[in-house]
């Protein structure tokens, strides 16, 4: 039976019930192996893993910046692969991943696989000459389960290296459904409605409508880059966004400049910010993790931040459609337009060992995606989502995960990756952050975009 047929068997078994049985079987055997393992029996259906052969004695090292408690679902998701092939997966987490993975690659000591969070970092790793081209099976899976846009993000200079994995949605505004209901406010479906809502809250509620924080140590300023990217998508559309990110149009050209001014309509208006913290200048000194918390205290009503922000609310917070906190899609100019800004992870290999290649293949299937989603379901205030089209959204427990997955998988949505993560480091993680911080503390829009444009590398 060929590999594609076996992947279909895996896909057919990917219901929530079947996945639960696989996970239960894998946990029941104590991790002592399965077919070809070092003892013990597994009840997991290993038929679909036969194409990978007996990998007993092989160890595959994974290096990532995803630390506890988020690392455990990754470890759990690889159990069927371990039990059915005999290989072992050594998952290593490091908060300094983004710096250390480059050091290791440049020193000729990379792991077998890395979970890379930015296409720009992937390109830097490819430049070290240590990254291995993705195998054909992975390429086929990405064609089937993600499509051209996502595949392009894992491609450098025409060569496909890295399959997408997890994802997040950034085009969200956090709010209190209970506050909205009490005041008769409705979720906006256009940018005009969002501004009208903002003005209504400012006039009638007794508090500033928006709260925000951009402090993040050396990365201070990055939340404003997300705001601006979202507005470029809405003002110029996906094509102009792509041109801006790739520098086919200047950073200080008309659409980006207008987009930053639109951000300023909210964040630099003293009538609109910074609920719970102070004036406009307090945005720069408020930790991004704390930015939206005043919603719970009734000190602000709106906070633009990505889906992963759910983890910052206190344990026990009711995050749901009718609860204390939820989020709505940041609307576009019309209700029919659906630009979605997001981010994601990419699975990058530095070895062509058969065990590594086999794990890459399994990792790029819809079955692994569903195993990972189920293993993550119990994480506090949010689990894990992916843009994999084979994701069974019934597995998702957290309402924010369901909302985000619906946006990612919406056929009418135009998804674009975080722009600063795709720009050269001198811009995306340097000048953009720094000048955005200067902008929120008083620098003009024109000076800001001009300085960022001047930082763009000449070659």
From TrEMBL:
The keyword Metal-binding does not apply. Gene3D superfamilies: Periplasmic binding protein-like II (3.40.190.10). InterPro entries: Bact_solute-bd_prot1. Residues 1-27 form the signal peptide. Keywords: Signal, Transport. The keyword Signal applies. Transmembrane segments: none annotated. Belongs to the bacterial solute-binding protein 1 family. This is ABC transporter substrate-binding protein. It comes from Cellulomonas fulva.
